[in-house]
Amino acid sequence: MTTDQQNRRPVMMLCASLAAIAILWLAVLPWIAERPVVNDRIEWLAHKGIDPAAMYYTELDAMKPIIDKLERRNSR
To answer: Where are the beta strands (DSSP E) in 12-75?
Structure first.
């Protein structure tokens, strides 16, 4: 392998990684969001006023019934 090829390899790996992330972000994730199960969940969260990015914050008013339901389910 020549020095020129050795210098190109990290750049090519970076480009491939960025392309993979772009495909995932711009194609795969939107496709998943359109699936009925995921779309129903997204609509349910929006209806309840829950920000999915803040779902782990238990101080959200809408989270109290959800946490109670999970605790009942786990205590069985």
So the answer is: none
Question: Residues 37, 39, 31, 20: what is their CA dihedral angle, to the nearest 10 degrees?
Answer: -90
Domain boundaries, the chain: 1-34, 36-76
Longest dimension (CA), the chain: 64
Query: Each residue's pLDDT tens digit in the chain (76 positions)?
Result: 677 777 888 999 999 999 999 999 999 999 999 999 999 988 988 898 887 777 666 566 777 788 888 889 888 7
* Amino acid identity at 24: L
> What is the model's pTM?
0.55
